[in-house]
Amino acid sequence: MATSSEFHVIVIGSGPAGCTAALYLSRANLKPLVLEGMQPGGQLTITTEVENYPGFPEGILGPKLMDLMRQQAERFGAVFRMEQVESVNFRQHPFTVVTDRQTYTVPAVIIGSGASAMQIGLPSEKALQGFGVSYCATCDGFFFKEKEIVVVGGGDSAMEEATFLTKFAKKVTVIHRREELRASKIMQDRAKNNPKIEFVFNTVVEEVLGSKDGGVTGLKIRNLQTGAVSEMKTQGLFVAIGHTPNTKPYAGQIEMDDKGYIIQPHKHSTVTNIQGVFACGDVVDHIYRQAITAAGSGCQAALDAERWLTHERITERWGLPAGEEERIDA
Ligand code: NAP
Predict the structure, then answer these.
(1) Among 34, 86, 135, 239, which one is most buried in terms of CB atoms within 10 A?
(2) Structure confidence by residue, pLDDT tens digits, 89-102
(3) Residues 175 and 223 both lie in one domain
(4) What is the model's pLDDT at position 246?
(5) In this structure, is residue 74 part of a structural domain?
């Protein structure tokens, strides 16, 4: 397998965090390579209209927004490759990043590999993603004004999504697979006291009904106690059963919490417990999880990486431009 050491910083992930990091790095003349991973563009590529990303008063399609972010970084020299990270070695400097195509040695790494919303796992759910099936109420709730929708899940996320969705929807039904909710009492109470929210317990979704043209029209559901299968009408399905950070290749190499989110040990810094490895976006954030917050932290990671490379004089040793060049920053 070929080994390449032509890049100064490897950015893992091509969502808003990775693209913004690449933009800032390339404008600092630090040649970044973005390893795009399995889902180039990240989670926004499975949503349709994005109305809450500043600068697009008419809204913009998720895939289009990611295409523009990528083009903007490429304009300044960032290189994007559709490669999947298989393993890393952060124990030795320069670091090694092994993908499905080749091995890279590189002085600094920014991990922005995101998190994946957990899916129920139904073919019909996958087919209607962005056409009535959503994993983010903040992103898509607005499109369900005066509609009747379903939220699947019994944790804090499901309660939060259901409560948020009542701002738009006529009625929200929470479908949970058990009798007891997992959510904290305060979140449960808030949802249970909301007159627009109803609960269906001991029930799972077996099929999402509808089409790309007509959107979601209903669900086939099964009561786990009686085994009875029935159809219920709904115009939208929000799946809120948790997220998984995409951090498997780094397990045992950098500090993570018990859910696999990367820990940033220093306040006001995106550095991980390994000097020279930075993290941004949803791999560190299970609270906000927005494109704009991910983009902001991608910018921070790039600035941290740039400062670290300069401070450690790695820039000179690696043949990188020393210091800052004159430029106009926002
Ligand atoms: P979670 O606590 O892991 O809950 C996931 C829920 O989805 C559980 O009720 C689970 O059912 C259900 N579920 C899992 N897989 C399923 C499947 N295949 N089909 C149907 N249902 C399934 O995840 P979360 O709600 O995203 O919360 C994650 C963390 O973030 C928690 O620590 C939570 O407290 C925190 N959080 C906090 C806030 C807040 O405080 N504002 C908001 C959101 C999240 P079972 O109960 O049967 O396992």
Answers:
(1) 34
(2) 999 999 999 999 99
(3) yes
(4) 95
(5) yes
pLDDT at 45 over 50: yes
Domain with 156 in it: 123-239
Residue of the CA atom closest to atom 48 of ligand 1: 182
Q: Which of 159, 161, 182, 225 gets mutated to test ligand 1 (max ligand atoms within 8 A of its CB)?
A: 182
CATH of the domain at 145: 3.50.50.60
Q: Are residues 141 and 223 in the same domain?
A: yes
- Shared domain for 270 and 311, answered yes or no, is yes
Task: For ligand 1, atom 16, name the residue with the nearest CA.
Answer: 241
pLDDT tens track for 135-194: 988 888 999 999 999 999 999 889 989 999 999 999 999 999 999 999 999 999 999 999
